[in-house]
Fold each of these.
Amino acid sequence: MMKIFKPKVLGIHDLDLEDKRFRISEFPALDPLILSIRKIGLLHPPIITVRDGRFVLVSGWKRVSACLKLRMMRLPVFILEEADDLKAFLFALYENLSIREFSLLEKAEILSRLQAFGLPKSRTMTEVMPLLHIPPTAIYRDGYLTIATLRPLVKKMIAEKSLPFSLARMFAEFTAHDLKNMMPLLLPLGQNKQKEVLEDLLEISRRRRISPGKILRGLEIQAILRSKKWPAVQKSERVRIALRRERFPHLTAWGERFQSALKELHWPKGIAVETAPYFETDDMEAAFRFKDEKEFRARLRDLLDVSSRKDFPRLFRRPRQPSRSREKPK
Amino acid sequence: MTNLPANRPSPLVEKVYIDKKSLDSALTERILANLRGIPREVVRGPRHKQTILEAIRRSDDPVREGKRTLFLTTQKGRFVKPCPCTPRAIGCGYFIINLNLQCPLDCTYCILQHYLADPWLVVFTNLEDLWRELEGFLEKQSRRFVRIGTGELGDSLALDPITRLSTDLISHFQGKDSVSFELKTKTADIRNLPTAGASSNIVISWSLNAERIAVEEEIGAPPVAERIRAARDAANKGYRIGFHFDPLVRFPGWERDYEAVIHSLFQTVPRSNLAWISLGALRFPPALKKVIQTRFPATTIIYDEFILGQDGKLRYFRPLRLELFRKIAGMIKKWGGENIPLYLCMEGSNIWREVLQWKPRGKRDVESALTPRSCRRNNN
C-alpha cells in the first residue's frame, strides 16, 4: 500500500539534486515546459521523498530543471512517505506512464534502476516491459540494460538523433575509447549509414578477432582521417566505403569491376543498366525512357553502338574465383 | 514396452510435460519409463501450456531452456508434408514426417532457434494416427517413388534413446519398395536400429562437417569420426547410407579439413551402401543472425561474405558458394564418389548447372535421379 502524500512548499535549493537514484531523463527538451510554467505556473508538483533527512526527487526532474531555469526559488511538492526505493520508483514510473511515452534511453534507465532496486528479472519482464512496449524477452531486457551503461556522450547522441534500439544496442559493443574515436566519424552520417559503419566495424572485428580500434588505426582509414583534402562528411563517407570493402571484399570487387567496365565503355547516358541483386544470377537489365519514336530509335542506336565496341564483353566478365583460403596465422 | 538400458545416457531432459490427450498413449508410457526420476507434470489445458511456455521464454536463454524440457502431445494437423525447400530453388521432391519438433543438440547455426515458435522439445505420441495417415499418403503417391524422412524439424535419432521411434518407423517402412525412408542425424548411437533386410529401402543419413565446425559449432553432437563409424556400423546392419554436407562453412583451411572428412568416409563406409550425398552451404534468415550473436557470441561463421539471396536468406556471395560446392564435389569424386548421386540443397538452377553441369528441369528430375534404381546403376 502506497504511503501518504503531504503537500508542501520547499525552497528549490533544499532539494538534494545530486541524489539521482530515481532519475530516468538525462537530456530533456525543456523549452515547451518552461513556456508552460511561465504562462500558467507549475500545475503538477514534483514528488519528493526523504532519505537520511534529505529531500530526494522521485518524479519531476524536468519540472524542477525548468523551475531552475526560470529561477523560481520555491516550488510546491508532494512528499511521498515511502522508505523503500523500489516502491518509490515504481510509484514514479506509474505516475509518468499515465501521462507520457518514455524515450529509448528512459526505458533503459527504468530497467536499470529496477534491477538496481532489486526487482526480480521475471517481474521486470512480466510486469514492466509490456507497459513500456518492450517485448518481454531476455534479449531485449539485456539490450536495454546495456544501453543504460553507455557513456553520456553516446547517450547524448542517441537522444539528439532519436536513434532506434538496434543502433543504440550496437554502441554498447564498443569500448569507451573506441566510441570516442568513432564519434566524429559517425556524427556526419545519417542513421542508415551509421548503422552500416558500426555493423561493418563490429563484424570485421569479430571475424578477424581484433578490436574495432585496431581496424580504425589501419593505414587506409588513418590516411583518410589525416587527409586535409576532405571535409568531415567526406571523410566519414570514405571510411564507410573502406570498411564496406573490407567487410565484403569479393562483392565490392565485382561491383567495382562492373562499374569500371561501364565507365570505360562510355555507357550511354539515359540507359540504366543493372546486374541481378548481389550478382545472384547472370541476369542483367537495361532500361530507358522515351517520349516518341525518334527517342526510342536513338536509344536503340546507342545500345547497338555500345554493344559493337571491342570492350563490350568486359561487361560480362567477372573477377577470378576467390583464391585458396589461407591458414590462420599461428 | 521397450525401456532404456541402464548404462545408456539419456538426452538432458530435465522436465517432462504431458498433454492430457497423450496420457494413455503407449509411446508416452515408453518415454516416461525411459525417463525415470525426471520430474513430470500433466498440462491441464491451453492456458496452463501458455504459462509454461511463457516461463521458458522469460528465461535467460529460452532456446537452451527449451532443450531441457520435453512436451508429449498429439499431432493435431498432418504429420506428412512436402519439404518446403526455399523459394526459387530446385527442390528434390522430398516429404517430411513431423513426429518431433526441436532438437536437444545445440548447433550455433540451427534454424530451429528461430523457425519454431515454441522452444521446447515436442514428441507427438499419436502414432496410430501417423500410421493411418502414412497409409493414405502412400496410396495417393502409389504411381511415384517417394523419398520421405524425419529429421527436418529435429534430429531423427537424438531423442531415440528415450523414444525408440526409429524401430517403429523402420518396421513400418521396411519392405515398401516404392518408398525410400530416411532418418537424418548428427548423433552416433544406432543401437536401437534393427538389422535391415538385404535390399533395404531404409536410408540412415549423417550430417557431416569439417571437424573444426563439428567441434566449435555443433554443440552436443559427437565428433565427425564417430558419426562416420556409426555410418559404417549401420551399413554393416544392411542399411543404405546418406551423407549431408550441410551446412558447408568457409573458414581458414576449410579445403583441407573437408577433404580429410570426405577421405575418411570413403575409407570407412562401403561405397555400395551409399544412397546419396547432398551439399548445402551455410544460409540463414537475417533474423537468426541476432539470435546466433546473442547465444553464441564467440562464433565467427556468420561474419563471412553473406548477401541477401533471392529467397530472403543470407547466403555466401555466389562465387564463394560456387567455390565451396565445386571443390567439395571434386573431393567427393576424387575419393571414390564419382557415381554416387550428388545433389544440392536449396540452390537455384544456375548453381546446379555450374557445379554439377546438370540443370534439372524441376524437382521431378532430381527425384528420379535419387531413386534406388539410379542409385544401383550408379554404384555398379
Amino acid sequence: MELLIIPSLFALAALVIPRNFMRYFGLAGGVTSAVVAIVHAVYYAPTAKYVSLFDPNWTSTFGLTYKMGYDGISLIMVVLTNVITLLILLSNFNKELASNKMFTAMVFFMQVALIGVFTSMDGLLFYIFWEITLIPVFLIALWFGAPGRKQALIKFFIYTFVGSLAMLLALMAIKTGICGNLPAASFAVEDLMAVQLSACSACWIFGGFLFAFAVKIPLFPFHTWQPDTYTNSPMAGTMLLSALMLKMALYGMIRWMIPLAPESLESYKLPIIILGTIGVVYAAILAIKQNDIKRTFAFASISHVGLIAAGIVLLNVDATMGVFVQMINHSLVAVGLFLAVDIIESRTGIRSMSELGGIAKQAPKFAFWFGVVALASISVPLTSGFIGEFLLIRGVYSYNWIIGLVIGSTLVYGAVYTLRAYQLSMYGPSKNFNFPDLTWNEWLVFFILMVLIVILGVYPQLVIDFVQPSVTRLFENIHSSKILVQ
Amino acid sequence: MSIQQLVPLILLFPLIGGIINGIFGKKLPKALVGSLATLASTLSFATALMVFFHLNEPVKIHLFRMIDLEDLRLSASLLADNLSLWMVLIITGIGSLIHLFSMGYMKHDEGYSKFFTYLNLFIFAMLILVLGSNYFMLFFGWEGVGICSYFLIGFHYSDAEKGMLNGIAARKAFIMNRIGDLGLLIGLFLILSQFGTLEYQELANMVTVDKILGTPWMMFGITMCLFIGATGKSAQIPLFTWLPDAMAGPTPVSALIHAATMVTAGIFLVVRSNFFFEHAPMTQEIMLYIGLATSLVAAFIAMRQNDIKKVLAYSTVSQLGLLFVALGMGAYTAAIFHVTTHAFFKALLFLGSGSVIHAMSDEQDMRKMGGLRKKIPLTHLTFLIGTLAITGFPLLSGFFSKDEIVGHAFSHNVVIYGILMFSILLTAIYMFRMYFVVFFGSFRGTHEQEHHVHEGPASMTLPLVILAILSIFGGLLNLPGIWLKGQAHWLSHHLEHNTGGLNLIEAEHADNGITLMLMIIAVAVCLGALVVCYLVYGKKQNVPVADAELSGWQKISANKLYIDEIYNFLFVRPTEWLSVVGHKFIEIMFLNGIILGFAKGIGASGELVKKWQTGRVNWYILWMVGGIVGLIVYYLVKI
C-alpha cells in the first residue's frame, strides 16, 4: 500500500513546502518511491504469485470491490513508472519548473494515478484511475505548455475522453450483460473474466476497450491528437505522455482487453496488426521530412508503438516478452529523446532542424549521450531496442511473413529519420549560438538511461525472468476461463 | 591458460582499450592514447596467435544465456575453429598495423582519442562477428561494425565545408547496410523456424550429417536472405553505392574497415553458412552473376575516377565481386585465401594513398599530384608492390589468389572466365594508370604543396613495409598444386580441417598444362596493361582531363554509371514526396479534418439542439456512441 501512499503524501506536501526547497523535495520524493518500488521488485520472487495490496473483501452495491494488488506484469509497470518519474523530476531539476509547487504536486499526483492503474484488480477502479491520469497531464500541459497549446489540448481531451467512455460502456456491458450474457458478480477481474460472452457481446466489449486503448497508444488512424499535444506540452508533459501514459493502454490491452473478451480476439487480431503495421510505416514516412525535431520524435513514437500493439494481440509468450522489453525501451528512449529536444530548445530557442546544426562541436558530451539514445531508438544491438524489436518482428513474422517484412522496414526507416534529425541538429560547423554542455542532472539522467538500456540489451533475461511466469499464468487463465472460439 | 580462457581475452583487450580511451582519452597525452589502442589490438593478435598454435578441434565457449524463451534459446557464446581464428588473425594483425599507422596519420587531428576509441570498438565488434558461435552473435557484431563504420565515416562532421556531406555519406552507408541487415534478420527467422536453433555447429550437423533439410524453396529463401545481408555489408549490386562515398572517412578507416575487414564480413557469412549454400544451387548461381556484374561495373567506373581513394574504393568493390564469383562456384577456401591477400595489398594501397595524401597536404585528386616517385621513395616502392600484387604480377600474392579463382571459373564456364579476365584486365589498367599518374611525370600541385612534400614518420612507414612484405609473400600460404602436390594448398587444408561443413574443392583443371596456360594468360594481361599504361601515362605523361571534357563511355564511367541519380529518382525522391504529401493531405487535411469536423459538428449540433435540450453532455455521449458503433459495425455485420 505504501506504493500509493508515499507519492500521495508527497503530492499533498508539495503544496506547502517552501519554494526554495521544492526541487530537493521533489527529487527526494522521486528517489523514495523509486527505491520502494525496487524493494518490492527485489522481494517479489518471480513465481507469478499474486500479491494483494488492498482488499476490503466487500462489494459495493454497484459492484466496485476496491481490489488492488500486483503480479509480475503489474509490478514491472510500477517499477517503470517510479523510475521514469524520478528521471522526469531529475531532468527538470535545473529548470524554473522544478521550484513550482503545482508542477511538483501534479507529477506526484500523476504517479499515484499511474500506480493505481497498474495495480487495480477491479475493472471500475481501473477505469477511475485511468480517467484520473488525464487531470495532472492535462493541467501540466495547460499551465506550463507552449503558447499554441489550447487547441491541441482540447483535441487531446475530447479524443481521449470519448475513448475512455467507450471503455466504461464496455465494462458496464460485461457487468450488466448485453446480447444475452449473464451479469458478472462484481467488477473484480476474476469475476469479469468468468463471464461467458456471446460472440456479439464479446465483439462490443473488445471494441469498446480497443477504442479507448487505440486512442491512447495511439494506433493509426486515431493518432492525430498526438504530435500536436506532444509538441505543445512542456518536456515533463511530453515525457509523461509518451513514456508512461501510453504504456497504460498497452498494459490495458494485456491485462483487460484480451482477458475479458478473448472470444473476439481472433476476429480483431488481423485488423489490429494491420493498423499497427500501417502506423509503423505511415508515421515513419511522415517523420522523414519533418522540420520540427520534437515533431519528428513524436511521429517516431507512433511508429514504434504500432509494432508493440501488433505484438500484444499475437497472444504468444515469446512475443509478449518482446512487448515488455520494448515497452521499457520505448519509455527510456522517449525520456532520453525528449530530454535532448528540450536541452536543444531551452539553450537555443529553436526546434527547427534547418536552423540548427554544429552542436556536437560545442557540446561533445551532449552529442555523445544524445547519440546513445538515438542508437537505442533505432534498435542497434547491445541496446534494449534491438532485443525488443527482434522478438516483436519475429512474432509478427511467424504470424504472417509479408506483414513481418513490411513491419520490419521500421529498422530501415527508423535509421533514416533518427539519424537525419541527429545529424541536422548536431553535425556541421558551429552556428552562432552559445551552447553550454550538459549540467550534472542532465548528465545523470542520460547516464542512468544508458545503464538501463545496455543492461537490457545485453541481458534481457532480467526482464524476461521477472515477467514470463505471470504472463504464462495469465494466458493459461484466459484459456481455462473461456472456451475460445477458434 | 586454456583456450577456453584465452579466446574471451582476444575480445576483451580491444573492448578495454576502447573504454579507457573513451572515458579518459581526452585528458591523456596523445602518444599514450595511441599506444594504448595499438597495444590493445596487438595483445589481441598475440593471444590469437597463441590460440592458433594450440587449437586442434573446434572449441565452443559459453558466456551467458541472453534470451531463454519457450521456443527461442539464444546464448552469448564463442566458437574458435580454424576459420574464425584465421579471420581473427587478419583482423587483429592488419588492425594493429593500421592502429600504428594512424598514430602518425592522425597526429594533428583534434579528435585523436575519439578516433582510437572507435577504432578499438570496431575491432571488438568485428571480433564478435567472426568469433560468435551463432547467427545471433554474428548479427550483434554485424550491426556493431556498421555503427563504428557510421561514426568513422562521419568522423569530421564539424568540418566547415564537408561536415554535412561527411554526415550524409555516413548515413547513406548505414541505411544501405540496414536494408541488407533486414534481409539477414529475416534469414535468421527462417533458420529459426526451420531448424529451431542458430548455432553454427548444430546447424552444420543437422544439414551435413543428419541430412535434415527444408524444402528447396526454404533453402533458397534462407540463403537468399543471408546473401542480401552480404550484399549490404560487402557492397554488391544493388547495395554497393555506399562504399565509394564511405571514403569520406579518414584514410586509415578506409584501409581497415572499407577494404581489409568489415567489407569481407559478407564473404565470411557465406563461407560460415556454406552448408546451406551447398543445398541452394539457385542462390549460388545468383551470387555468381551478381558478383560478376559487380566486379565488371565497379572496374568500369574505376577507369575514369581521379580521386585516388575513389579508385581504390571501386577496386575494392570489384575485388569483392570477384570473391562472390568464387563463392558462387563453391570455392570457399579460395575465397578466404583471396580475402587474406586482398587484406594485405588493399590495406597497403590505402595506407600508401594515405601517405601520399599526407605528403600532399590533404590533396586527393591525382591530377594535382605527379612525380612523387623521387620525393617519397619509400611510399612509392610500397605502393608499387601493392599495385603489382593487386594486378596479379607473377609470383606476388595476388597472382596466386586470383589465379585460383580464375582457375575455378575456367573449369566452371569459359564465358564467365572470359568476363572475369576482362574485369581483371580493367583492374590492371586503372591501377597502373593511377600509379603512373601519381608517381611519374612532373609535379602538378601548388608551390606550397611541393615545398611541403615529405615522407611520414616511422609509425607510418613501418606498417607500409610490413604490409609490402606480406603482399609479396602472402601467396605462399596457398600455393597451387602445379609443381608441389603435397605441400600445396596449405591454407585450404588448414581451413577445412575443423570448420563445420567446409571442404576443399579443387578446380577440375588440376591438369598442369591448363594451369600453366591460364597463368600465362594472366601474366600477359597484367604485363600488357603495365606496358600500355607506362606508354600512355608514364612516358608521354598524359594527365587525365577535366570531367567536363569527357564524352562517350568515359563520361559514363566518370559519372559512376549515374547509379546514384537513378536510385535518387527511384527511391529517395518518391519517399520524400510521400512524406510531404502524406503529411499535408492524409494527416492534416483528411485525418485531422475528420476530428475537427467532428468537433465542429458537436458545436453546431449543440447550437441547434440547445433550444430543446438541457445541455450538450447527452449529445456528446450520443455522438460518442455513434463513433463506437461506426468502429465496430464491420464486425457486427460479419457476425
